[in-house]
Each structure stands twice: as C-alpha cells, then as structure tokens.
C-alpha cells in the first residue's frame, strides 16, 4: 500500500504524536501534540471523535491502516502533477498564485477565503507570485514537505 520511504515518514509522525511513548496514540497524546502546535482549547469531544475513528487502540499498524483508508482513491503523485502541468504550458514547475486562486474560488467545489488563506500559509508563493505545484502534489501524496537534497 505504501512505499518504504512513506512508511518511515508515517513512523516518524506516529512517534511524534505518541507523546508518552507507550506505542498507543491516546486522547492525552493528541491533546499534548495539538498543544505543542498551539491548539490549546481542543474539546474533549473532538479528541474522543478522533480516537473513535479507529476500531480499537491506535498502535502503529492501526495508524498506518487509517492513513491508507483516508488516502484510498487519491491519485498517484504523477497523475496530480500531470493535471497541474496542463495549467503550466511553459513547463516551469510554477503557476501564478492569482490564477490558482481564481480557479479554486470560482470553479466546481469553490474554496472559501479561509481555505485560500490556509493554502497560502502552507504553500506560500515566491516573491514573483509563483506557486510550486510539484511541492503541493508531493504533500498531497506524502503528507509532508520534501526535504531539500
């Protein structure tokens, strides 16, 4: 289901979330990791709902299975990149922020202003207003940014 490099990335994520290092992700682990990310007022009901997404205790195998189920149906990275390439006729690897924003806020399942703000916070354009769509595709399919080589 996953490449070895992806499994390693998920293992690292699991280790970060498993704050008490007992091999199981609990409500307390989720509360602690969310607090480290600045989300201090998470309701107990929200944490309960997160933990209940699993059929039992969330060990690494369950964690990996949950991600597999969430990603099932997601296109492979090369397919998503190819879709973006249609919008990049000069094959620069970048698309203008304004163009992406216009498409995402006026077509099909329209993004809200908040969703656009979140998108640009996660994938800020360069000083010329260009967005690296290959980076977006990588994160969609792998869950985190590529490390510079």
UniProtKB/TrEMBL annotation:
Q: Which InterPro entries does the entry link to?
A: EF-hand-dom_pair, EF_Hand_1_Ca_BS, EF_hand_dom, Myosin_RLC
MF terms from GO for this chain are:
calcium ion binding
Asked if Repeat is a keyword of the record, the answer is yes
The segment(s) forming the EF-hand domain are 5-40
Q: Which SMART domains match?
A: EFh
Q: Which UniProt keywords apply?
A: Calcium, Metal-binding, Repeat
Under the heading Pfam families, the entry gives:
EF-hand_6
What residue stretch is flagged as signal peptide? none
List the PANTHER family hit by this protein, alphabetically.
Answer: MYOSIN REGULATORY LIGHT CHAIN 2
The protein in question is named: Myosin regulatory light chain 2, skeletal muscle isoform-like
Instruction: Give the originating organism.
Output: Salvelinus namaycush
Source taxonomy: Eukaryota, Metazoa, Chordata, Craniata, Vertebrata
């Amino acid at each position: 289901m996953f490449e070895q490099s992806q499994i390693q990335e998920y293992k690292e994520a699991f280790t970060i979330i498993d704050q008490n290092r007992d091999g199981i992700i609990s409500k307390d682990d989720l509360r602690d990791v969310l607090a480290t990310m600045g989300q201090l007022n998470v309701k107990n009901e929200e944490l309960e709902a997160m933990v209940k997404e699993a059929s039992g205790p969330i060990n690494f195998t369950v964690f990996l299975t949950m991600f597999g189920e969430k990603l099932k149906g997601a296109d492979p990275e090369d397919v998503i990149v190819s879709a973006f390439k249609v919008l990049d006729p000069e094959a620069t690897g970048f698309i203008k922020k304004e163009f992406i924003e216009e498409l995402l806020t006026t077509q099909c399942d329209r993004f809200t202003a908040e969703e656009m703000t979140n998108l640009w916070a996660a994938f800020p354009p360069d000083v010329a207003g260009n967005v690296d769509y290959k980076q977006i595709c990588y994160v969609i399919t792998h869950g985190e940014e590529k490390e510079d080589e």
